[in-house]
């Protein structure tokens, strides 16, 4: 947690109406959006003027979160986003540890700003750009950090249904529905309070996970057919080419969670999904591991990425086949 002096200073900052902007990482997930919108609804309760700017579009399965219709998309609405950022008294940066995580376009703008920033994030090795840095890798989600942040400021009473629903969402998605190792008794105590304050847990799970199109399930079928297993390396991977994505009418968010199937096979400790993105000219990669295999380090060392010990991402500029081959070659070498 932030120290007492920092908390006092932030409380003082928030004691009169301010222009506040909240930003999260590119390709926002449940935790990025849940924490950002949760914090937005909280700050509105304190009478601030608050805008959430996402670098790019958010997936459909998060569209039900309260006030997603007011989210400003930086890469599509640059002319609107720029003055909002420039005129902010405070910019909260949520669920990322370095400004480049907002993507090339937004980073360029952020690099020119001198506004006061506050970071709330649970990724390793935070950069030092914020005046106040609440960074803690022991948390399973930024949403749980925002919950503790609100409580530490002494505003637990202000948590309403909207805030609770947003924060619950990121806790569920980043914890794999409460099963990943960073899920603690504190997580469950937090979630109990959020349910008490109006988060409809059952409905939220349904909104998040029971919203597939038929095409998305067919795409999942294709992904599972493409799954390759390397028992001697305790490894597996899935590939999805642009052509395959197109043939199943791919929409943002459709590949969310598919990577985890590679880890559900007995004996597999590390897995990846390689997804071709012709428009960006990259292979987007997600890594997952169990136990001591550190995919954050692996992604940093080999695939221009990062993340957490057991969940990370990266990218490659080689072909899909080449990238998958590299993954296996590196694992074989490091084994
Ligand atoms: P996912 O695989 O679900 O997209 O991401 C897993 C974790 O790795 C998340 O915490 C995410 O923020 C992080 N991550 C994903 N892609 C990248 C990347 O390209 N670079 C870095 N530094 N982190 C990433
Ligand atoms: Mn997160």
Automatic annotation (TrEMBL):
Residues 19-171 form the DDH domain. Its EC number is 3.1.3.7. Signal peptide: none annotated. Keywords: Hydrolase. SUPFAM superfamilies: DHH phosphoesterases. The keyword Glycosyltransferase does not apply. InterPro entries: DDH_dom, DHH_sf, DHHA1_dom, Oligoribo/pAp-PDE_c-di-AMP_PDE. The keyword Hydrolase applies. Residues 247-318 form the DHHA1 domain. Pfam families: DHH, DHHA1. One of its GO terms (molecular function) is 3'(2'),5'-bisphosphate nucleotidase activity. Transmembrane segments: none annotated. It comes from the Bacteria. This is Bifunctional oligoribonuclease/PAP phosphatase NrnA. It comes from Flavobacterium jumunjinense.
